[in-house]
Amino acid sequence: MARVLGTIDAWMRDVALGVQGFFTLGQRAVRFTAARPFYWQDLIEQMDRIGVGSLPIILLTGLFTGMVLALQSSVELGKFGADIYIGNLVGASMVRELGPVLAALMVAGRAGSGIAAELGSMRVTEQIDAMESMGTDPIKKLVTPRLLAGLIMVPMLTVIADVVGIVGGLAIAVLRVDIPADVYLRGVWGTLATSGFVFGVFPRDFVSGLFKPFVFGGIITLTGCYYGLSATGGTEGVGLATTRAVVTASILILATDYFLTQLLLVIVPPVQ
Amino acid sequence: MNAADDYLDSIRHELDPTPGPGAGSAIAEARPIIELEDVWLAFDEPVLRGVNLRVYEGETLVVFGESGSGKSTILKLILRLLVPDRGSVRVFGQDVTRLSYEEAAAVRRRIGMVFQYAALFDSLTIYENVAYPLRENTNLPEVEIEEIVREKLRFVDLDPDRVMALLPGELSGGMRKRVGIARAIAADPDVVLYDEPTAGLDPLAVETIVTLTRKLQTELGVTSIVVTHDIRAGFRVASRVNLLRDGKIIFEGTPEEMVASPDPYIQAFLG
Questions:
Q1: Least CB-CB distance to A126: which of B109, B119, B132?
Q2: Strand locations in B133-218, DSSP E?
Q3: Of A231, A125, A119, A123, which is closest to residue B195 (Cα–Cα)?
Q4: pLDDT digit string, tens, across residues A66-85
Q5: How big is the CA angle at B70 (ends B67 and B73), to the nearest 5 degrees?
Q6: DSSP H or E stretch at residue A111
Q7: Residues B156, B160, B166, CA angle at the centre, nearest 5°?
Q8: pLDDT at position B25, please?
Q9: CA distance B76 to A134
Q10: Nearest CA-CA distance, residue A149 and chain B, Å
Q11: ipTM more than 0.90?
Q12: What is the mean pLDDT of chain B?
């Protein structure tokens, strides 16, 4: 019994220390955004890797998600003769939930794992120690540019995923369900424009669709950096860090999505 | 000539007979620039248990010890990459355990470190690797940086025009180690730390590294700490030696005194 309790105690301590380490890393990385020297070249390089590098997978994910949404909804809505509302359904689903979440999950799988693997390799081959021994703070040099790149690029990728998804839905609506393009697009716009306004100015779906991926970008990059910098034990440790980074980021994205949605519903109740 | 002298002679016979700076009586007049006092450190198990160590200006201190005895940990404590559980680590007169991160970074800039497997940044070229400490810590124009990089690469017997554009993965282990030395001395540090500088190298590459280490002593007068379990290479560069066992320094003296020690463990360690 004592042994079981000891194991639980050790596990809980590890979890508590991990959470503390994660938030400390995030706090320092954010603090360094306003400290010199600033690594502009690293930021641009990371924006290229996270943003441009993830573009093909985001385009494919967005396109097929929009197409399958239109296809599935045409079947169900068609039963009630309501298939002209395909645009409303695709637009709302893509912008509010599927665009941000799927784009974030794709970036977590591609860029988050890459960050963990790269920093993990640097850690186990003592490159991080070498950097620190030469007076460079690895958080400033490695984490801050990745965090900023994530905060900037994930919302942009999400917008692209939303647009491509809506275009994919349009293709199915026009070519397969015989809905006129203008009816579909009016449906998309109608849903987004009538969902309420944040501070009376910004469309609620627009804010939600950009705020969520902003948070997800932070989660993906910080998780990747945290597990990468914590890697130990050679190549096996790097593999473990990579897996943990992707799994943790994916769970955090899905859980955070719920709480952010709830928060936005409280701040801006949907129009009845 | 006794057995100890024979042994020393056998491992010193290829040496330049000129002892390195800091050897012999010169040490007595020098002041310690690095001093570890009663340092204790444990991770899951105790690593260092009350280590006392002094390094004098201009000397080369070699710390011997078996693998896992805590040798590399001492170097990380000096750089404040680790903080001891107890005790003080004084570097250039400052207790680095009490410094802020930024203050510790300033101390680190006066120290060059040669890592066991060179620890070169594998995404950067050799030029960028050697230029790294200069770009990070100085405002020198790129033309001057290139000049320094070329000079340091030549110092470690590498042809700058041939290697500067290469990536670390394109070099042999010995060449990578030499680039590591070039990077460590790029900013003209006061102290150079070597972590197992000859580990994993063939005899010819070991010879090159030993020659380079001595060249740094004699030509640049750099204070050095070398941690290694390579007795032969260690004795060839040492002004003084320490032996670490189970987290404690169990011997401190000259190579000659170490060889002459009747301690059975030391004799077994020397083979």
A1: B119
A2: 191-195
A3: A125
A4: 999 999 998 888 888 888 88
A5: 125
A6: none
A7: 105
A8: 45
A9: 13
A10: 19
A11: no
A12: 87
